[in-house]
């Protein structure tokens, strides 16, 4: 049990580090918070909540793994190396794919509801 609590402590340390030092992680956190606020305002269904939560988790997880990869790359290869560049580029590509998936899912869920709202307000 003590080991589990210690592991959680390290995990929160990592989360704090990413939140404090990574502007991209801060942007993804803000986007996730906005999606949750929109979900509450637009009263999305349980199924839609599952998609929204999955998207938020996938984007934050890929961003955290990318940060981890970048940090390790900077440690192992502080000077220019083609493979270090590939490592960072592939990590960044994973984040872009996750973010695109989240944007498309968000558009499918929220756009019709937002359009409907304006349609009825007009
Ligand atoms: N050691 C390196 N060797 C070769 N290319 C590198 C190296 N470090 C970075 N690069 C190239 O520069 C790009 C930007 O890297 P940089 O370290 O500036 O930002 P990042 O760590 O990818 O992202 P962030 O701005 O979120 O910290 C990388 O995607 C890679 O193409």
Q: Would you kindly provide a brief summary of this structure?
A:
The chain has 122 residues and is mainly α.
Overall mean pLDDT: 96
Count, helices: 4
How is the CATH topology named? Helix Hairpins
**How is the biggest beta sheet arranged?**
none
Going by helix content, strand content and strand pairing, the class is mainly alpha
Q: Please tell me what the overall shape is.
A: globular
Instruction: Give the SSE order as H and E letters.
Output: HHHH
| Integer tally of domains | 1
Query: Bound small molecules, which ones?
Result: adenosine-5'-triphosphate
The overall strand count is 0
Using the coordinates above, name the CATH class: Mainly Alpha
Task: Determine the strand fraction and express it as a percent band.
Answer: under 5%
CATH architecture: Orthogonal Bundle
- Computed over alpha carbons, the radius of gyration is 18 Å
The percent of residues in helical segments reads: over 70%
Low-confidence stretches: none
Q: What is the terminal separation in angstroms?
A: 58 Å
Topology:
Elements: H1 2-21, H2 23-41, H3 46-76, H4 82-121
Adenosine-5'-triphosphate (ATP) is lined by residues 24, 70, 77, 80-81, 84-85, 88-89, 92.
Describe the protein's architecture and organization.
The structure is a single chain. The protein has 122 residues and is an all-alpha fold. It has four helices and no strands. The protein is globular, with a radius of gyration of 18 Å. It starts with a helix and ends with a helix. The relative contact order is 0.11. The model has no long low-confidence stretch (mean pLDDT 96). The structure holds adenosine-5'-triphosphate (ATP).
């Amino acid at each position: 049990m003590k080991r589990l609590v210690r592991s959680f402590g390290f995990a929160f340390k990592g989360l704090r580090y990413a939140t404090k030092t990574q502007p991209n992680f801060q942007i993804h956190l803000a986007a996730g918070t906005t999606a949750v606020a929109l979900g509450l305002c637009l009263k999305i269904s349980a199924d839609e909540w599952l998609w929204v939560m999955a998207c938020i988790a996938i984007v934050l997880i890929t961003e955290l793994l990318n940060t981890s990869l970048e940090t390790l790359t900077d440690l192992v290869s502080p000077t220019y190396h083609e493979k270090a560049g590939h490592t960072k580029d592939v990590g960044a590509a994973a984040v872009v794919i996750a973010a695109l998936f989240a944007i498309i899912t968000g558009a499918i869920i929220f756009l019709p509801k937002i359009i409907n709202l304006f349609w009825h307000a007009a």
